[in-house]
Amino acid sequence: MKQAELKKIAEDCADKIMNAEDNSVFFKEPFKHVVIDNFFPAEFAQVLLEKFPDVNSSDWERTNDIDIEIKLRTMWKSEFDVPEGIIDAIRILNSSLILKAMSELFDIHKIMPDPYFSGGGLNATVSGGLLDIHVDGNYHDASGLNRRLNAIVYLNPSWQEGWGGEFGLYDSTGDNLVKKVAPLYNRLVIFDTNDFSYHGLPDPLNFPEDDSRKSIILYYYTKEPRPSSQIAVEEPHSALWKKRGLLDKRGNKTRDFN
Q1: Superfamily of the domain at 3-244
Q2: C-alpha dihedral (120, 204, 213, 7), degrees to nearest 10
Q3: Do 29 and 198 touch, CB atoms closer than 8 A?
Q4: Whose CA is closest to 68, among 5, 151, 131?
Q5: What does the alpha-carbon distance between residue 214 and residue 212 come to, in Å, rounded to a whole number?
Q6: How many CB atoms lie within 10 A of CB 256?
Q7: Is the pLDDT of residue 258 over 70?
Q8: Per residue in 189-222, pLDDT tens?
Q9: CA 85/CA 192 separation, integer angstroms
Q10: For 247, which DSSP code?
């Protein structure tokens, strides 16, 4: 797609974020999040769906931690690993236009994207897959920056409620489900990630055998640490899981870093 066309899409997408209305599209409970439908133009979203890798392809890293995480994710190391067609969406979502819009809406300043794609990229979950309730890791090894926002674009045109896979937002203890967000096609979700923003989809999916829960996930960072009210663990840590007693996959509260 030509530069001018991409810029126009980015400007329109940034406007949707900037103009998100309180309690209609932008919400502050249980933690700040925005839900915007029809985020990309229809033809653009269709290309993303068409270019999304088949679950049987070699593009995927398969995670199979039975109690907490069963899914597929891409293993991008740079933008050169991103499939044609999908790279345009990544460029838009990591553009300064979107960064400034997110910064304004969430009141988090000097946001930076992740060119290393540490955990970011494409996700796919098939029937039986799940993601336990957790809080995200807080630290970016490659840059030393602090993780602040997650953005998800869902690509599930045939999704039905009985299939499961709704994005669950929980209270500050992770014990009580406050809200579910359906993974609808071309829906953008951005949320404030911190040590109290518990989220997940802990119930196994019931998708048809020939379909999967598809999404693009990107993470954003700042040099400035999270506010003290959002910190439970000051040291760098990986995702901390409810079913593991708020420890990471290795049974640790914190982790080493370089």
Answers
A1: q2cbj1_9rhob like domain (2.60.120.620)
A2: -40
A3: no
A4: 131
A5: 6
A6: 8
A7: no
A8: 999 999 999 999 999 999 999 999 999 999 999 9
A9: 28
A10: B
Count how many residues are written for the chain: 258
Q: How far is Cα 95 from Cα 196, in angstroms, rounded to an integer?
A: 28
Quick one: tokens of 185?
């096609």
- Over residues 112-135, the pLDDT tens digits come to 999 999 999 999 999 999 999 999
Distance of CA 101 to CAs 16, 98, 106, 111, Å? 9, 5, 9, 10
Rounded Cα–Cα distance for residues 202 and 106 (Å):
27
Task: Give the chain's end-to-end CA distance (angstroms, integer).
Answer: 38
Structure tokens at 214: 């598809």
In the chain, where the domains are located: 3-244
The letter for the amino acid at 36 is: I
Which are the contacts of 42, defined by CB distance < 8 A and separation ≥ 6? 186
Nearest CA among 196, 199, 186, 200 for reference residue 232: 196
Pairing label, strands 167-170, 199-201: antiparallel
The backbone torsions φ and ψ at residue 136, rounded to the nearest 5 degrees and listed phi first, read -80, 160
